[in-house]
């Protein structure tokens, strides 16, 4: 189905140690995390909060285990701070990732996000961009795209629960308002299904602009609780809304088929933030790897 020289498999460290809630997995070391990634059969990783920022130290630790860096999350504040503030942080982040050999930079706008607020109901309080915020976001992302291109890199925008770009309609606005040469899309199955969107429709519509993929599954019974109990995003994570492919309700076979037919090149990143005390990250990594092998032939 896929050319193994063009598609690589990574897994995010967020199942081992959570960036937004450091108490989840606080006892897990960086070395344990990357060792279990390699042992479970993955060849890449995104960057977590325990990863050394010294590129030589990080390269050595990863190379010992046969791992590469696929990308890393970047929080932009284009709607709430001057562009110069975001650009300064972005350049530092870009240069770190470039040194690590990454080709894409994951960007998500956090200027009005509620995803990090423990008590804010996720659906009732979802932010909606004003016209001015859309203008700042679209123009700002184009500028970040130019900065990425200076290093031969792309930005991939991460639509995300609890932000102003969550729904299919909001993704449409983002895609229509930006240059495909400057702004690409990160396709995340879990966030689309969580939001109530048709994830396959979004995939088919924008497959030519998708240059990074997060493979995330959903436990729908928890999503229903998030609605009925007015839970926040972080509460949803702790309750187990997300899981790895093959453990939730999403059938990834048609996802892989669409991407394969389109000749997708890049990383597939398994990403499922769970409480490692409840969902053993190594066990779930092995489960995800087995499912992808059986479903995508990778």
Automatic annotation (TrEMBL):
Q: What class of enzyme is it?
A: lyase
Q: Pathway of this protein?
A: Polyol metabolism; myo-inositol degradation into acetyl-CoA; acetyl-CoA from myo-inositol: step 2/7
Under the GO molecular function aspect, what terms does this record hold? manganese ion binding; myo-inosose-2 dehydratase activity
Q: Which UniProt keywords apply?
A: Cobalt, Lyase, Manganese
Q: Which reaction does it catalyse?
A: scyllo-inosose = 3D-3,5/4-trihydroxycyclohexane-1,2-dione + H2O
Q: For this protein, what is the EC number?
A: 4.2.1.44
Keyword rRNA-binding annotated: no
Q: Name one Pfam family in it.
A: AP_endonuc_2
Positions of the Xylose isomerase-like TIM barrel domain: 40-294
Cofactors (names): glutathione; Co(2+); Mn(2+)
Cite a single GO BP annotation.
Answer: inositol catabolic process
Kindly indicate whether the keyword Manganese belongs to this entry: yes
What protein family does this chain belong to?
Belongs to the IolE/MocC family.
Q: How is this protein named in the record?
A: Inosose dehydratase
The organism is Neobacillus bataviensis
Q: Which gene encodes it?
A: iolE
């Amino acid at each position: 189905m896929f050319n193994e020289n063009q598609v690589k498999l990574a897994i995010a460290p967020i199942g081992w140690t959570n960036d937004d809630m450091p108490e989840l997995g606080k006892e897990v070391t960086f070395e344990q995390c990357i060792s279990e990634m390699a042992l479970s059969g993955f060849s890449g990783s995104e960057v977590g909060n325990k990863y050394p920022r010294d590129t030589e130290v990080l390269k050595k630790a990863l190379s010992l285990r046969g791992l590469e860096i696929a990308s890393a999350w970047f929080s932009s504040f284009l709607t709430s701070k001057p562009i110069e503030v975001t650009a300064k942080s972005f350049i530092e982040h870009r240069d770190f990732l470039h040194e690590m050999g990454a080709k894409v930079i994951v960007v998500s706008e956090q200027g009005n996000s509620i995803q990090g607020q423990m008590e804010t109901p996720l659906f009732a309080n979802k932010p909606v961009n004003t016209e001015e915020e859309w203008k700042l976001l679209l123009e700002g992302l184009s500028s970040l795209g130019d900065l990425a291109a200076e290093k031969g890199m792309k930005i991939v925008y991460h639509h995300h629960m609890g932000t102003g770009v969550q729904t299919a309609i909001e993704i449409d606005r983002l895609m229509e308002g930006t240059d495909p040469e400057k702004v690409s899309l990160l396709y995340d199955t879990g966030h689309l299904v969580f939001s109530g969107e048709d994830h396959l429709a979004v995939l088919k519509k924008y497959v030519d602009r998708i240059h990074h993929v997060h493979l995330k599954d959903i436990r729908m019974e928890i999503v229903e609780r998030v609605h009925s109990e007015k839970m926040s995003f972080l509460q949803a994570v702790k309750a187990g809304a997300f899981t790895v492919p093959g453990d939730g309700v999403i059938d990834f076979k048609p996802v892989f088929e669409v991407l394969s037919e389109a000749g997708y090149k890049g990383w597939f990143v398994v990403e499922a933030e769970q409480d490692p005390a409840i969902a053993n990250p190594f066990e779930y990594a092995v489960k995800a790897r087995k499912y992808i092998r059986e479903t995508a032939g990778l």
